[in-house]
Amino acid sequence: MPRRERRAQLLDSALEIFVAQGYHSAAMDDIADRAGVSKPVLYQHFPGKLDLYLALLEQSCDHVIEKVRDALASTTDNKQRVDATIDAFFAYVASESGAFRLVFESDLTNEPAVRDQVDRVTNECAEAIADVIADDTGLPRAASLLLAVSLVGMAQQSSRFWLEADGGIAREQAAALVSALAWRGIGGYPKS
């Protein structure tokens, strides 16, 4: 198997194990078994469990950041931007892969490299949202960033709560409820 394909296979297998067991309980033997490779093959691609976890975490963080940026770029209508951005978080946590657990529920956040990646999601999503807020409202950068971080926090927490609560609300409806709340707040800032 070509190196790139093998790496993708290993990452997919590791995702399943890390999501199911968490970092501390996951074993490289389990990941190798899931991938159908020997442990030495796994170590050829990733020198250790932390390296493998960080590669997977970076990929997962990149994915959610890309989805938020895509949502912001999808339209110039700010209400639709809010809808699309909130929905991006709900879609991310609803994904069958469970990758959001690495980003939002990691059991390794005391590790600086992991904390940096997790913080990067909030920071980069907030920066992208703050750019839109500042451009549209004329608010100072610090105020725009504070509002953006608040919106990101709302999206992260509510989407995770929705998934765990399993209260019979469809994903689209749940995202629309949170989006309406967010829009009622951020929509109150006049466009400059």
Structure description:
This protein is mainly alpha-helical. It folds into two domains: 1-47, Arc Repressor Mutant, subunit A (Orthogonal Bundle); 58-186, Tetracycline Repressor, domain 2 (Orthogonal Bundle), CATH 1.10.357.10. The chain is built from nine helices and no strands. It has helices at residues 3-25, 28-35, 39-45, 49-73, 78-94, 100-104, 112-137, 141-165, 171-186.
**CATH superfamily heading of the largest domain:** Tetracycline Repressor, domain 2
Q: What does the average pLDDT come to?
A: 94
Strand content: under 5%
Give the second-level CATH assignment, the architecture of the largest domain: Orthogonal Bundle
Order of helices and strands: HHHHHHHHH
By helix and strand content, what is the structural category?
A: mainly alpha
**Whole-number tally of structural domains:** 2
pLDDT < 50 stretches: none
Shape: elongated
Q: Distance N terminus to C terminus?
A: 55 Å
CATH topology of the largest domain: Tetracycline Repressor, domain 2
Summarize the SSE layout with pairings:
Blueprint: H1 3-25, H2 28-35, H3 39-45, H4 49-73, H5 78-94, H6 100-104, H7 112-137, H8 141-165, H9 171-186
